[in-house]
Amino acid sequence: MSYRPPNSASIAPILDSVRFNSDGLIAAIAQSADDGAVLMLAWMNHAALAETIATGQACYFSRSRDTLWRKGETSGQRQKIVDIRLDCDSDAVLLIVDQTGVACHTGRRSCFYKSVGPDGLQDTEAPRIAPETLYAATGP
Amino acid sequence: MSYRPPNSASIAPILDSVRFNSDGLIAAIAQSADDGAVLMLAWMNHAALAETIATGQACYFSRSRDTLWRKGETSGQRQKIVDIRLDCDSDAVLLIVDQTGVACHTGRRSCFYKSVGPDGLQDTEAPRIAPETLYAATGP
């Protein structure tokens, strides 16, 4: 399966149907198309979602940097869109992606690596890439 | 794999590590343990997450009803916890669950059934259960 962006007439109605929160954001989950692993949760504003839908490359909104965050632009760890799904009340989006490398800024494949266990939190995976090699000067 | 709740001394440090947002909430993703399908995204406050961790049954916080939402209490569509994972910056939680029946109040298995396609949004699945049979008088 490969992603086909909507035709230009269909993009605006899709975006109009989305219920962004009071900060103008929608929660976005990224899931691996390979094996269904949930990779990360991030946020999108209108422009980030519009860009993701149009280009087929995941673009989020960085709340810490207050700017569009084209996933992998610095680190190379891009997310190619396979499918984009809105939920029943259109206030969350699920991206099914082909993940290049790792999703997490710690160098792990998934951000969800801290498991609640009998004795507290336990790491479920080690970094696959040293974080300091992921980013040159700009941070995640 | 079955979920084992933390011992009582370990629960408080786990909860203390969570970064709830300015509304006191954390985003919670539910994923099927069976096949990895992402079922829904909801929200938890401190009490909901504490209850989920302690009991092994998913409990959310309903923003519309401003109260704890014990998933399935009305509909019977419960979520038994298999694993609970926090993400790298501890502001999102992933629940891996055994879902009884369907997760979505529309009667579909997953809330993420509206796919962005070439001609706009397309439903990827039909309801498995008529919504009116899911709820008696109280709503989702």
TrEMBL record, chains A, B:
Gene3D superfamilies per the UniProt record, alphabetical: 4.10.80.70, Phosphoribosyl-AMP cyclohydrolase
Biochemical pathway: Amino-acid biosynthesis; L-histidine biosynthesis; L-histidine from 5-phospho-alpha-D-ribose 1-diphosphate: step 2/9; Amino-acid biosynthesis; L-histidine biosynthesis; L-histidine from 5-phospho-alpha-D-ribose 1-diphosphate: step 3/9
Major localisation: cytoplasm
Primary enzyme class: hydrolase
Keyword presence, Cytoplasm: yes
GO MF annotation terms: magnesium ion binding; phosphoribosyl-AMP cyclohydrolase activity; phosphoribosyl-ATP diphosphatase activity; zinc ion binding
Keywords: Amino-acid biosynthesis, Cytoplasm, Histidine biosynthesis, Hydrolase, Magnesium, Metal-binding, Zinc
Enzyme Commission identifier(s): 3.5.4.19
Catalytic activity: 1-(5-phospho-beta-D-ribosyl)-ATP + H2O = 1-(5-phospho-beta-D-ribosyl)-5'-AMP + diphosphate + H(+); 1-(5-phospho-beta-D-ribosyl)-5'-AMP + H2O = 1-(5-phospho-beta-D-ribosyl)-5-[(5-phospho-beta-D-ribosylamino)methylideneamino]imidazole-4-carboxamide
Pfam families documented for this protein: PRA-CH
Residues annotated as binding Mg(2+): 87, 89, 91
Cellular location(s): Cytoplasm
Manner of cofactor binding, per the entry note: Binds 1 Mg(2+) ion per subunit. Binds 1 zinc ion per subunit.
GO cellular component, one term: cytoplasm
Cofactor(s), by name: Mg(2+); Zn(2+)
A single BP term in Gene Ontology: L-histidine biosynthetic process
Binding residue positions for Zn(2+): 88, 104, 111
Statement: the UniProt record of this protein carries the keyword Kinase: no
Function per UniProt: Catalyzes the hydrolysis of the adenine ring of phosphoribosyl-AMP.
Oligomer and partners: Homodimer.
Family: Belongs to the PRA-CH family. In the C-terminal section; belongs to the PRA-PH family.
Record protein name field: Phosphoribosyl-AMP cyclohydrolase
Biological source species: Neoasaia chiangmaiensis
Source taxonomy: Bacteria, Pseudomonadati, Pseudomonadota, Alphaproteobacteria, Acetobacterales
Gene it is expressed from: hisI
